[in-house]
Amino acid sequence: MKIPNQPLSEQTYFILLSLQSEPKHGYAIARDVELLSNGRVTLSVSTLYTTLKRLLDDGWIKLLDEVSQGPGGPGKPRKVYKITKKGGNVLVAEIQRLDTLVSAARARGVEGLA
Amino acid sequence: MTGLPGLIIRTYSLLLRLYPSSFRNEFEEQMLLDFSDMAADAGKKGRFAFVFFCLRELVDFPFNLLSVHLREGNMFKVLRSQPVNYGLRGAIGFGAAFPTSVIGFVFMNLANESMLAPLQVLYYDLFHTLPLYEIVAWFPSALGFLLTGLLVGCLLAVLFADRSNYRRYILAGMLGWFLHRVTSDLLNSHQWRFFLGTTHSTYLNIAALILSGAFLGLILVVSRSERRESLRLLAVGAIAYPLTAYLYAKLLFKLSIVDTPRLFIALMILMAVTIASVLVLAGKSDGGRKNLWLVAVGAVGYPLLAYAGAFLAARIYSPAFLTPIYPGGVGFWPMVLAIALSQAVYGVLFGLLLGIAWGFQNKNSVPQVAAGT
């Protein structure tokens, strides 16, 4: 399988990371991304769905048949997305790339790294 | 949700229509649900958080919209869809026409002072005939009307023409505007005593105004080749123009005595309603709410833009803005360019507003791409 050699954008990385743990609907993804990034990455609705559309087209995530409820309880059903095997491989490749970068920095004893 | 959040959510749902239909079918409902939830969350955190949320959505929206359209390969269609297309045409047309008219006016004055005025004096010295001299003295104005007409024709071509008929629009605009201005100048200038004697009657003035307005209607008849509609279009010009000219003159006169913001706004509303009403009467729409929409957009939007334009102009001409750029004092051409620049910005905004309103009024309220074509 061909893994993109370009670094992922922060939004894409965090969305894939968020879906890695469990399938989620759009609102839950946005909230989880905010949590994962310690509030640094906040997805607007348009950014979230533009990115989801691209990930769907690339086959990195897929739409599940099941639906779930929004934060306000019963209401209109929410579509749920799940990361695919291809998307998982892309995420792992990106984590390895980031790990290589950090390891290189650690090997040189850059101050401030734990 | 009610109040301001409800209004913002409704506005957002309208904005979502700008996405391609395939994207909307897939995500519109979910996006709106998430937007409502996020707006509610932000609202619970306080006003500042809510405003910040709205601003973030507002800033991100156009970039993502563009990105989706580029990805879907629909940009060309979007640019050709009615509201967007007319909005761009308006912005380009008025954005170019307003500053060009400023610079053209300056050049005409310079040409008048340096060449035509000495020629008139020479003519008088040679022939010593006052009536004919007055006709000669009127030539610079006539030349100005013709050049302004060329500008009007080009503007009409940019706004409405297809590739096949832009020459007709330019020619109709130029000749129609020339006849319109010549006619309205007919009884107000001393030069025409040569033809009409010294009598300046009210009835002749009104007749000149009506004829002058009819020539404006003629521009539409000839440029759009609307023979069936010719009487209606001529009547629109013949009735609307004298009425507007009368009200405009009255308001302007009052404004020269009592300069109040209320009168200024009234003047702007009058102009806007006139323009919009003429477009409605001249257009082919089915009538009803869409016409009211166009008039309302004109009546509300134009005064706002006029105020913004006046504010911008006051800033640009102010010593606080110009002195740091030109410490030795503002020269003639920098001032002309500053005025032209402010007019260009104003023209772009004005054209955008008018074009989008016109596009919505004439076609579907949804761009063709978003409607699934």
What does this structure look like?
The complex is a heterodimer of chains A (114) and B (373). Chain A has helices at residues 10-21, 26-36, 45-58, 85-107; strands at 24-25, 61-70, 73-83. The mean pLDDT of chain A is 87. In chain A, α1 packs across α4. Chain A is built from 4 helices and 3 strands, in the order αβααββα. Chain A is globular, with a radius of gyration of 16 Å. With 373 residues, chain B is mostly helical. Chain B has one domain (81-372). Helix content of chain B is 83%, strand content 0%. In chain B, α5 (82-127) packs antiparallel against α6 (130-160), α5 packs across α14 and α7 (166-186) packs antiparallel against α9 (202-224). Chain B is globular and about 85 Å long. Chain B starts with a helix and ends in an 11-residue tail after the last helix. The interface between A and B is medium-sized, with 22 and 21 residues.
Concise account of the structure shown:
Chain A is α+β, with helices and mostly antiparallel strands and 114 residues long. In chain A, 53% of the residues lie in helices and 20% in strands. Chain B is an all-alpha fold.
Task: Fill in the keyword field for this structure.
heterodimer, A: about 110 residues, alpha+beta, B: mainly alpha, about 85% helix
Strand content of chain B: under 5%
Total beta strand runs of chain A: 3
**Total strand count of chain B, please?**
0
- Please report the two chains with the greatest interface, counting residues with C-beta closer than 8 angstroms to the partner's C-beta: A-B, 22 and 21 residues
Which structural class should the secondary elements of chain A be placed in? alpha+beta
Summarize the helix and strand pattern of chain A as letters.
HEHHEEH
Number of helices of chain A: 4
Q: How many structural domains does the protein architecture of chain B include?
A: 1
Mean pLDDT of chain A: 87
Assembly level: heterodimer
Strand content of chain A: 15-25%
User: What's the story with the biggest beta sheet of chain A?
Assistant: 3 strands, antiparallel
Output the strand order for the largest sheet of chain A. 1-3-2
Shape of chain B: globular
